[in-house]
């Protein structure tokens, strides 16, 4: 719960460590940590500190009361909210936390985007498994190559969700103001034309002439999925065409815009329930049953199915 030097929280105890990464946007920092011996003195942060306990029990004092965070519990500290911290059991505790600059909030909480919420949390520990799972998904997406769009979208979604559900005044999200079909089609076409790049929410927002949060929610309202999900679908369809043309999975992955074959396999299985190899074997079996055969095109044929064919 404190910003200690990365990897050296307590040099005398290797089980105590803290590692920092830039967040999905410049105003967010991610810390992952585990502490056994270290005891935090009373301190505060200028930022929001929004985290989830992964293991063990961490205890602390905040707002004049003692608290304990168990695995799966959320930590929700407002800016300048003093607290201490230590282990609650001998095994220590592990957690991950996002430090969010308060100046970022107006970019997340906007009337036109339907994301208005209280600006402060009403209690420092809450048990909300769906929100905790959403926060962990957002944290896992941070820093992943070719996933800037997904990382920012998931982070914004969970920040808004937490403030709406656990703010001083609970709020319900509303539909964003309609942004117009022409704008949304322009963004869709931009995604299809540039799907091999690491697109960002800011880039799509500029294309639409909207704020980042408004763009994301208006796109989801118009097409039924947010931009990062649409981008993944475009990449997968392109990769499938390459696989069916006989292109090696590693080359198909890179040409479609995935960071590597492992990234491709995760996203493919997440969307279809199958690995790319399993899907291709089934498709080849169906083709053979129909009297055809899968293409044995050389990998050089990737140029005929290049990223210019996304649209």
How would the blueprint of this fold be written?
Layout: E1 17-22, E2 28-35, E3 40-43, E4 48-56, E5 58-62, E6 65-69, E7 74-77, E8 83-87, E9 93-100, H1 105-108, E10 125-126, H2 129-141, H3 148-166, H4 181-193, H5 201-208, H6 212-223, H7 227-244, H8 249-256, H9 261-272, H10 276-289
Antiparallel strand pairs: 1-2, 2-9, 3-8, 4-7, 4-9, 5-6, 5-8, 7-10
Derived from helix and strand composition plus strand pairing, the structural class reads alpha+beta
Mean pLDDT: 90
Q: What is the string of helix and strand elements?
A: EEEEEEEEEHEHHHHHHHHH
Low-confidence stretches: 1-11, 293-311
How do the strands line up in the largest sheet? 1-2-9-4-7-10
Shape: globular
Number of strands: 10
Largest sheet: 6 strands, antiparallel
Determine Rg (CA atoms, Å): 23 Å
How many separate helices? 10
Percentage beta strand: 15-25%
* N/C terminus separation: 46 Å
Residues in helices, as a percent range: 25-40%
Q: List the quaternary state of the chains.
A: single chain
Q: What does it look like?
A:
With 311 residues, the chain is an alpha+beta fold. The chain is built from ten helices and ten strands. It has helices at 105-108, 129-141, 148-166, 181-193, 201-208, 212-223, 227-244, 249-256, 261-272, 276-289; strands spanning 17-22, 28-35, 40-43, 48-56, 58-62, 65-69, 74-77, 83-87, 93-100, 125-126. Strands 1-2-9-4-7-10 form a six-stranded antiparallel β-sheet, covered by helices on one side. It has a four-stranded antiparallel β-sheet with strand order 3-8-5-6, with no helix packed on it. It starts with 16 loop residues before the first strand and ends in a 22-residue tail after the last helix. 37% of the residues are buried. Mean pLDDT is 90; it is low at 1-11 and 293-311.
């Amino acid at each position: 719960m404190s910003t200690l030097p990365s990897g050296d929280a307590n040099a005398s105890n290797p089980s105590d460590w803290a590692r920092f990464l830039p967040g999905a946007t410049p105003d967010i920092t991610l810390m992952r940590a585990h502490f056994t011996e270290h005891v935090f003195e009373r301190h505060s942060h200028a930022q929001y500190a929004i985290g989830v306990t992964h293991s063990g029990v961490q205890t602390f004092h905040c707002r004049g009361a003692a608290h304990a965070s168990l695995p799966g519990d959320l930590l929700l500290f407002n800016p300048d909210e003093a607290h201490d911290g230590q282990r609650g059991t001998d095994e220590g505790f592990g957690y991950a936390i996002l430090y969010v600059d308060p100046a970022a909030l107006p970019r997340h909480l906007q009337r036109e985007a339907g994301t208005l919420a209280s600006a402060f949390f009403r209690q420092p520990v809450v048990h909300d498994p769906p929100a905790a799972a959403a926060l962990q998904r957002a944290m896992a997406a941070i820093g992943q190559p070719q996933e800037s769009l997904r990382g920012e979208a998931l982070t914004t979604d969970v920040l808004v969700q937490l403030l709406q559900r656990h703010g001083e005044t609970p709020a319900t999200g509303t539909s964003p103001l309609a942004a117009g079909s022409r704008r949304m089609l322009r963004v869709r076409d931009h995604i299809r034309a540039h799907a091999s790049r690491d697109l960002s929410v800011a880039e799509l927002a500029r294309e639409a002439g909207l704020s980042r949060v408004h763009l994301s929610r208006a796109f989801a309202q118009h097409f039924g999925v947010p931009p990062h999900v649409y981008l993944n679908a475009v990449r997968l369809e392109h990769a499938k065409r390459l696989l069916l043309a006989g292109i090696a999975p590693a080359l198909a992955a890179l040409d479609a815009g995935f960071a590597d074959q492992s990234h491709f396999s995760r996203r493919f299985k997440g969307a279809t329930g199958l690995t790319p190899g399993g899907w291709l074997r089934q498709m080849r079996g169906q083709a053979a049953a129909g009297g055809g055969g899968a293409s044995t095109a050389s990998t050089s044929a990737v140029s005929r199915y290049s990223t210019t064919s996304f649209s």
